[in-house]
Amino acid sequence: MGIPVAGDLGMKEIYCKVNEVPIPKPPLKGIELISQERERQLSQEGWSAQHDDKHPQGQLALVGACYALDFALYKETARELFPWDNKWWKPPKEATISESIHELAKAGALIAAEIDKLQRQWEFQKRTVKDKE
Q1: What is the pTM of this model?
Q2: Do residues 117 and 49 lie in contact, with contact meaning Cβ atoms separated by under 8 Å?
Q3: pLDDT tens for residues 78-93?
Q4: Residue 21: left (phi > 0), alpha (psi -120 to 50), or beta?
Q5: Domain residue ranges in the chain
Q6: Tens digit of pLDDT for each residue in 18-45?
């Protein structure tokens, strides 16, 4: 193993190479966390586009907003607005930074699911109009 050249690597990378430890990855950006959470909802929770399409318009966005409101310390308002059964209300037990980030990623993923649902509806409308022409 050659000695790293300082111009090629930062101090953290040099330390890791010299000490033969893994270079830590930078934290994910918010949009990456939201995408990761949405993938988790689909793969681990078993939700799907077909399931999402059964919810009334705006309901997924409202649930996402409730988690964001809970984070913003509007806890009573969030709970009152939450449209689903209590078993689905899962705010963090502690307001740690890690838990807060997860709750905001969950909120964003639910809002993204609502956007995806609207896009499917829009595509369907476009096809329907095109078929009528």
Answers
A1: 0.76
A2: yes
A3: 999 999 999 999 888 8
A4: beta
A5: 37-132
A6: 777 776 677 899 999 999 999 999 999 9
The Cα–Cα gap between 33 and 37 comes to 6
Token pair recorded at residue 129: 């109009």
For the beta carbon of residue 26, count every other beta carbon within 10 angstroms. 6
- Average the pLDDT over each of 44-48, 92-96, 112-116 and give the range with the smallest value: 92-96
Please, what is the angle between helix 59-71 and helix 97-132, to 10°? 160
- Answer positive or negative: Cα dihedral of 81, 86, 87, 89: positive
User: Whole-angstrom Cα distance, residue 116 to residue 84?
Assistant: 20
List the structure tokens of 12: 């953290």
